DNA sequence: TATTAGATTGTCT
DNA sequence: GACAATCTAATAT
């Protein structure tokens, strides 16, 4: 058996590269996550979706949950890069972040929209509706968690390890570019350009 | 197409 | 007690 080299192994190398980008902080992570695949396994079903929109949050940011320090809720944001931080939004929705930065700093990238690739029927069932365009299946942070059946039990999950919820490294296509805009749905730091999206992608939560 | 209201509960002050 | 990193349906234009 040939030795598995972290550098040469086509599976391992991109994963370690992604880990490094996540460790570099929320701003780098939010960009690096675009084009990556989020995989969710439910029993034998495999759901896959491509990340097309993210937002960066960090400790020095008045709009961030960890502005002002660590609390029980935001604790995962201070963990190591690649963990999940899932929270309840408006009492009824779940939203998922990918933790970034080095351990001890409060940083994360919110996943705002994904493009469904595989297991779409399952996602439709999880959302509880049919007959609407697939573009609206996961084009929002609450919607994508519903479509992929992601709940609070998926808090603290290591997305860079093999499990029922994981990240598969991916890149943008050559013709794709990243647009940067203010974030959506916040009331502080409303002008900060910290939303990242694949320009022109059909599955964004909004245009522009 | 744009704007608005209502649902609903964990979290922190 | 106030507010929230949202979503949907309904109403107005």
Keywords summarizing the entry:
4 helices; 3-methyladenine DNA Glycosylase, Chain A; 8-stranded antiparallel β-sheet; alpha+beta; DNA-binding; 208 residues; globular; single chain
What's the CATH H-level superfamily name? Answer: Methylpurine-DNA glycosylase (MPG)
Q: Under the CATH scheme, which class?
A: Alpha Beta
Write down the overall mean pLDDT: 95
Number of domains: 1
What does this protein look like?
This protein is α+β, with helices and mostly antiparallel strands and 208 residues long. The protein has one domain: Roll (3-methyladenine DNA Glycosylase, Chain A), CATH 3.10.300.10. The chain has four helices and eight strands, in the order H-H-E-E-E-E-E-H-H-E-E-E. It has helices spanning 12-23, 26-32, 120-127, 141-147; strands spanning 37-42, 45-58, 84-89, 93-99, 107-118, 165-168, 178-181, 195-198. Strands 1, 2, 3, 4, 5, 6, 7 and 8 form an eight-stranded antiparallel β-sheet that branches. Strand 3 and strand 4 (93-99) form a beta hairpin. It is globular. The termini are far apart. The mean pLDDT is 95. The structure holds a DNA duplex (13 and 13 nucleotides).
Quick recap of the structure?
The chain is an alpha+beta fold and 208 residues long.
Describe the protein's topology.
Blueprint: H1 12-23, H2 26-32, E1 37-42, E2 45-58, E3 84-89, E4 93-99, E5 107-118, H3 120-127, H4 141-147, E6 165-168, E7 178-181, E8 195-198
Antiparallel strand pairs: 1-2, 1-6, 2-5, 2-8, 3-4, 4-5, 7-8
Helix pairs in contact: 1-2
The chain binds a DNA duplex (13 and 13 nucleotides) through strand 3, strand 4 and helix 4.
